[in-house]
Specification:
2 domains; 14 strands
Amino acid sequence: MSSSVATKSAAQLCALCNDAALKQCNSCHNIRYCSTECQKADWSVHKIVCKSFRKSIEAADPNHIRAIYFPEKGGPKIDVSTLDIAEKRKSDFREWQTFDHSHILNRTIPSHTWAASFAPHGQVALLDCQNHSFAAVDHELPCLISGPVVFHAPGRNLDTIDFRNIVDTVRWLHYCDTHIGDTTKQYSLPTLPSVMVSCLGDKHFCRQPNFAEYPVSAFALMPSVNGLPLVAVKAPPSLPFRGRTVRVAHDRSLPAELAFILPLLQPLIDPSRMGSVTIARKERNYIHGAHIDALCKYSDSITMGTTQPFMMAAMIKAKATEQRFKAFWNMLKVEGNFPGINPPYDV
């Protein structure tokens, strides 16, 4: 985290990035942004509680603190009234987790406490125990948490900025469940060794490398690339960067779902909203990130910086061959690249 970010409080920073906040929502006058672009990107999340936050201000009571409530059904809301959790569930209601850091923005945030009721530890939650109000944020989230959830901070009223931080944290938990650790557990079928080619969002917000080992179970056919029979499939969606953009040079922003490496492998596929892609070998042989990296470098050496898809495809088709790629791989190895990695044709 940069020193400039560390010296600013969360209220002084944009809700979606680490730039200084210059404007606020005209409706709730609470959450702040650096630009109209970030405000538009956040609207699908912010609109969920913008109205309930205004009502909570009008109903302010010095004997209560403002909390954010995710009931089992309905939708999330900011509320200062008594939370209508059924009496039979209050015995299960317990403190769960505190957090004070945004993994997505890599900055400190005000401390919150999660409180929730869950299915007994070690038992599979029934479908009707899932927290369906999280679907108002993302349709993937209800399966992550069971029972009603209350977010609160002792002695402090939560607001729409806190709601954005909560959304980012829950999305990060979903990401950890689906992308980090033993990802083979999410598949009911045998998996293939594969390499995830990261999109812009996975690289920038989730700090993934360009190429990382990742298993796949179901896949779509991808044409042979330089003699390597490959299969590819879109990776599961990474919720942390949903709706976000990534600011690049000259204050230009690109969609986080941009598969910026993919055109070097398949120039005619639109990469703008593709997201990350996992690539495996059709014959189920081992594949390493270095193999995909070498393919990309080889294609780049052929296209020589050309960005027009049809021209790139024509140049690769005319010049790329299996033998030339083998020679290119050997040249990279002589230069000291990919130590200890076997050639892709020998695995």
